[in-house]
Amino acid sequence: MLRNICRYQRQFGQVIWPFSFPQGQHVPSLLTHLQKAKYASDTTERKKFYENVSISQGEGGLFEINLDKRKLKTPGGKLFTVPNEALAIAVATEWDVQKDTLKFYTMHLTTLCNTALDNPTQRTKERMISAVLKFLETDTICYRVEEPPGLVELQGNEWDPVMNWIEQRYNVVIGSSSSIMGPQIPEETKETFQQHLNSYNLWSLTGLEYVITQLKSLVLSFGLIDRHLSVEQAVVLSRLEEEYQIQRWGNVEWAHDYDMYELQARTAAGAMFVHLSSESTAVKRKILQD
């Protein structure tokens, strides 16, 4: 199990790079074909090759993940380091709970750390903020249907309270529209969100963009990160039309449940990553036991 999780050792012998990004995970859209090949490997499982997982504090106060006595590395070949102990423990736990077979597609925090560390497209903070703001122009809850009446009513009842919350919370105007062009977002609103996003570091922006990609909504993502919505609420609201159709016409139960749980897992991991990568205080040192 996860032993000696907070033993601070600086030398653990050889390093190891256990995997590339699994298929279906968040990959920046500007990757070259070679980068996509590395970050979207179809090898999503591998036989477990270690027994113990630990963390150690290395140079500059960064935390490292150790599999037995080997240091973890990123797909790009960098030493896998995270900025604080809380995030290190969370990532180490992902590795510790793996059984005989490593299921990389379940290790969302590890994947997000790799993205932040390697930054394969070399995106700056400004470019990431610009990319995040563009989601506002196609936000799921900004687009409203005109029929059927039942769905129109459902969208108003479920989405309007969230829209009212974010407009009051950030003192902005967003609005909604049934036009394919969507609502006209005022420049003042974009400037307000840009200033807010500037308070995030590069790691947190990586997590936020991941959450937005899952929910297809900046509004719902802010609601989740600000703890106005739970993960379950945010996911259901992001799939409102699909849920409406399922209630009306039925569904393949196992497939629906699987998709729902997978989306919840990815969204929860992204939200956790945002909060943990913003964490500035050290977690109390302790050993995690069975």
TrEMBL record:
Broad class of where this protein is predominantly found: mitochondrion
Location relative to the cell: Mitochondrion inner membrane
Membrane topology (UniProt): Peripheral membrane protein
Keyword Cytoplasm: no
Any one GO BP annotation for this protein: mitochondrial proton-transporting ATP synthase complex assembly
Keywords from the named record: Chaperone, Membrane, Mitochondrion, Mitochondrion inner membrane, Transit peptide
Keyword field contains Chaperone: yes
InterPro entries, sorted: ATP12_ATP_synth-F1-assembly (IPR011419), ATP12_ATP_synth-F1-assembly_N (IPR042272), ATP12_ortho_dom_sf (IPR023335)
GO CC annotations, alphabetized: mitochondrial inner membrane
Subunit structure comment from the entry: Interacts with ATP5F1B; involved in the assembly of the F1 component of the mitochondrial ATP synthase (ATPase). Interacts with FMC1.
Similarity annotation: Belongs to the ATP12 family.
Known function: Plays a role in the assembly of the F1 component of the mitochondrial ATP synthase (ATPase).
Protein name: ATP synthase mitochondrial F1 complex assembly factor 2
Organism: Sinocyclocheilus grahami (Dianchi golden-line fish)
Gene (UniProt): LOC107594216
